[in-house]
Amino acid sequence: MDSGYLLMNISKQLKYDLNQALIKNGVTVQQWAVIQQIHQRKESTVAELSFRLGMDKPTVSGIVKRLENKQLLKKRPNPSDQRSSLLLLTESGEAILKKCQKISEQILENSLSILSYEEQQTLNSLLTKVNQEKRKL
Questions:
Q1: Where is the secretion signal located (predicted)?
Q2: Which helix (H) or strand (E) element contains residue 88?
Q3: Whether the predicted pLDDT of 137 surpasses 90
Q4: Angle at 54 between CA 61 and CA 133, to 5 degrees
Q5: Which residue ranges form the domains of the chain, and what is each CATH number?
Q6: How confident is the model over 94-114, as a mean pLDDT?
Q7: This prediction's pTM
Q8: What are the pLDDT digits (tens) for 11-58?
Q9: Spatial distance between the Cα atoms of 81 and 128, rounded to a whole number of angstroms
Q10: What angle do CA 30, 37, 104 make, to 5 degrees?
Q11: Which of 10, 53, 68, 92 matches a 20 to 30 Å C-alpha distance to 137?
């Protein structure tokens, strides 16, 4: 079977499973992606999130507004660009981050449980190699 199709299909199923589990905790996969990116960088602008997540700015702005309404993130003025704001996680945002990380790890662990530890390490190594090469392009 075609590797591209397999990767796409597995990715789609993992995303679906993760979304179903996250929704039970009040966030979607897209909101989780934004939370993760803000956490990794400590603060971020909508434009930066849009670029890193490969989403258009209006979509990210909508996600940010919903996360703000849930009080999972907050804005502060951007000292280097008055037209934008810096986004930071609130205490509630940090708490949901930890909860969602556990959910994400569990979903992946369940999905990969048919593989031995060595097979999982090999898979991770190969995916990391491909991912690093794609980032160079």
A1: none
A2: strand 85-89
A3: no
A4: 155
A5: 3-136 (1.10.10.10)
A6: 93
A7: 0.82
A8: 999 999 999 999 998 999 999 999 999 999 998 999 999 999 989 999
A9: 35
A10: 60
A11: 10
Position 115 pLDDT exceeds 60: yes
Least Cα distance to 18 among 117, 107, 119 occurs for 107
Q: What separation, in Å, do the N-terminal and C-terminal C-alpha atoms of the chain show?
A: 26
- Reduced to 3 states, what is the DSSP secondary structure of residue 77? strand
Instruction: Give residue 104's pLDDT band: very low, low, confident or very high (50, 70, 90).
Output: very high
Provide the 10 A C-beta neighbour count for residue 73. Answer: 25
Q: What is the DSSP string of 29-74?
A: HHHHHHHHHHHHHSSB-HHHHHHHHT--HHHHHHHHHHHHHTTSEE
Torsion of Cα atoms, 40 then 129 then 7 then 46, to 10°: 30
Separation CA 88–CA 43 (nearest Å): 5
Q: Please tell me whether residue 85 adopts helix, strand or coil conformation.
A: strand
- The SS3 call for residue 134 is helix
